[in-house]
Amino acid sequence: MRNSLRILAMGVALLALPGVTVAKGIKEPLRDGYYQALKGKKVAFLPGAMAMDLAIGWLAGLKSELEPQGVEIVVRDPNFNIQAGAQALTQLIAEKPDVIVVHNPDVTTYAKLIKQAEANGILIVQINMASLQKSTAYVGVDWVEMGAVQARHVVEACKGKSGKIAIVQGDLTAAASAYTMSGIESVLAENPDIKVVSNQSASWQSDKAKSITQTVLKQNPDLCGIIGFWDNMDRGTAAAVDEAGLSDQVYVATSGGGETKAACDMVKSGAYDLNVVYSVPNQGANLASTIKYLLSAGVKPGEISGQMYTTLTPVTAANAGDEGICWTMKQ
Amino acid sequence: MHRFQLSQQMIVSVIFVLLFAGLSLLLPGFANTENLLTLLQNVAILGILGLGMAVIVIGRGVDLSMIASLAIPVALTLQLADAGHSTALAIIAGLALSALFGAANGWLIAYAEVPPLFVTLASGLFLAGLGQAFLFSTEAVVWPEPLQFLSAIGRGRLAGIPNSIWIFALVAVAVHAFLSRLTAGVFTYSMGDNPMAARLAGIPVRIMVIVQYVSSALIATLAGFVMAASVGSMSTRIYNSTWIYDVILVVVLGGIGLSGGRGSVTNVLIGTLLIGTLLNGLTILDVSFPVQNLIKGFVLLAAIMADTVLNPRNEETAQQGDI
Q1: For residue A215, what is the nearest residue in chain B, using CA coordinates?
Q2: Domain contains A330
Q3: What sections of the protein cross the membrane (chain B) (predicted)?
Q4: Dihedral sign, CA of B133, B138, B142, B144?
């Protein structure tokens, strides 16, 4: 009884003490190091071109997450010119930023430069299209899985139909074409009743995609599915199907960064039956998180090599209208 | 002189006929009406551009900025219409930009006397850069709802024939009329044959140069409208592609010498048909992209070599400015 009274008294006494003493926190051991590690660091961004919805989304993510913490972001825009991109990367290596975010136009062109950059102490984070050369981090789509997802949907849609499908690739040596193809092949290997009647490259251009699809549809009017490799290009693919009056019969699958006009609107209009979306804002955030982690941990190039694969969301008529499936570019 | 022209055209015609016959025999599904219409539809835009380029090349020039004229003015129109401006204003703005651009090209070539190769190389970069950097936030500008009434120029059919083929035919007739019926056409040939003599003869060479480049820019913009309507968007990235080489290929393959003064609409049609047949056949055969390029290059080389063997160049046939 006496004891409990004493405890009570102590409690009252404690409460009576000025609030200041209670609020005085203990020193947080992380933040000083974190801000010091990030402040004044330089991150260079080398996309295929800034005029892509993807690059705009990624840069927005980098800026909103990193700039408030004192990280300087510089952009080199090769505007779809691979030589200009290689030159920009060479130049960046000489300028020695702390991190370079690289969007590879194909799996080989930047490979040597990536190796050289990391040898010079620059962290290389590859975004969405990886080079054959591994670097500290890759943030982006698992293209093999992407191909498999699309192929599974098309195989499903082709059940009970002709089983004839066409494939419209981008640049053949781009990661997004080469690896997607291997994903498709793995699914098709299990479905011998599906026959690929055409497998052509449209070099990411919508007019070429349309020409190829038109010709293929004329030769195979009983086609049941098409797998396209990028929604911006497959506007042409979809236009050809629409013009042939085969929208109901031909299942058009594509993929992209989920920008409203390129993805959800096109699925809603019935142009695409499926758009497998990798959320670009999420990728931008992942990219920024990766850089924050690498810089604050003081990782040196070559020490580690990791991947952060983006979640793939199949967008169909069922969910194209849902909140948060697509994102809208700020003008 | 006459023999030279005929032979050049003949070689390509023979290659075309052989290719066409071969594909018809060996490739089931090639020689049916629907596929041939698709073939034509696929090269209609290339053909329209080829016609615009033909006028320039006959007048001894070259217009490397055509793809910029195809992309940027059209994208401007689409963007303005999408932003809620009146469709008339949007279309006029696009056409005005195109005409102004062509006039600037012509002025630099005619009055500042800069070679057309350099002028149009630089001005194309300028216009494409202007568009890509300042006018549009993304490379693909979507065909907007308010312009739906115009989308028939690239989609749909009239009397069973795709509309883009009709437009190609119309432009072919117009360019043919210009070259063979109008005085301006005669001027164009004489300028191409010998610019100094044309000038001495009192032909308004400088004004004609401006007229030619304005026409090629406007024809390219028309092709751009057809293309954008056809695929539902205009991708300014097309400027970075190899389209301009394909246009030159069609013109040269058809037999219009780059040294000017020779050729007609028929040459462009033959060149376009040959390329169209080749691409269509290779797509049906599902030949891989690198092999397609190889075959395209081989056919071009074959045509050039056959021409060189049959029509060896000498002092008599060579012209000043021959490439």
Answers
A1: B38
A2: no
A3: 12-31, 37-57, 87-110, 117-136, 165-189, 210-231, 243-261, 268-285
A4: negative
